[in-house]
Amino acid sequence: MSRLEAEGRAPSCWWRFGFWLTILAGLIILIVWINLRPTGSDIPKCSVEYFYVPALNKTLNSRLNTTLNFMVRLANPNSEQGIYYDDVHLSFSSVTYVFIANYTVPRFYQGRKKKAKKWGQVVPLNNQTVLEAVLPNGLASFRINLKTQVRYKNSFWKTRRFGVDVGAEVGVNGDGVKANKKGIRLKKSDSSSSSSLRSYFPVCVLTNLLAFFAIC
């Protein structure tokens, strides 16, 4: 190989190396960006603000009433991102996870730093299950779970969907209403935290594959 040929091939090799290195870095950044999960401060804040079971109201003595009335509040803490909610699925059960009822809030959009109050009524209830939720101290205890998927909207794009899976126990007094006058925050369950680890597995696999093909 002549000196001129060697000098001509060297820049070409470096150009190819730089090109593939740039492509690889760009793909890695894109994949990581797509799969980045929002931080805890970005996730919607969900709470139960109103909860009323007429069948447990001792003053009315209305055990034949088979309704459950509630209001959940969803707050967007982001000042730079709106939130698109898919259908919000609510499930009600006893604290021993005996099913009581389901309810679905239709999908909606929430602006930046906005709060949404979603009222609902579940009917009919299985009153036998409701009455069995009453504890010896006269209070009743229920569990509400909320599941949905959200997309965050920036000025120019929307993110992929992220799951929201939160829940809390709600105590009900002798008037049939929520015992805690303040809103009850719905929090993430321990079981749902493992899903975030699984979501990063495809990223690692794709990154390794891209590196392998770039080297080859």
Topology readout:
Layout: H1 3-35, E1 45-52, E2 68-75, E3 82-85, E4 88-94, E5 99-105, E6 108-110, E7 115-122, H2 127-132, E8 140-153, E9 162-172, E10 184-185, E11 187-188, H3 194-215
Antiparallel strand pairs: 1-2, 1-10, 2-7, 3-6, 3-8, 4-5, 4-8, 8-9, 9-11
Helix pairs in contact: 1-3
Q: Quick summary of this structure?
A:
With about 220 residues, the protein is an alpha+beta fold. About 30% of the residues lie in helices and about 35% in strands.
Task: Note down, in words, how this protein is organized.
The protein has 216 residues and is of the alpha+beta class. It has 2 domains: 3-35 and 203-215; 45-185, Immunoglobulin-like (Sandwich). It contains 3 helices and 11 strands; from the N terminus they run αβββββββαββββα. A hairpin with a 4-residue loop joins strand 4 and strand 5 (99-105). Helix 1 (3-35) packs antiparallel against helix 3 (194-215).
List the main descriptive attributes of the protein structure presented here.
216 residues, 2 domains, Immunoglobulin-like, alpha+beta, four-stranded antiparallel beta sheet
Averaged pLDDT, please? 81
| Strand percentage | 25-35%
CATH class of the largest domain: Mainly Beta
Overall 3D shape: elongated
Integer-rounded radius of gyration: 26 Å
Subcellular location: Membrane
Keywords: Membrane, Transmembrane, Transmembrane helix
Transmembrane segments: 12-34
InterPro entries: NDR1-like (IPR044839)
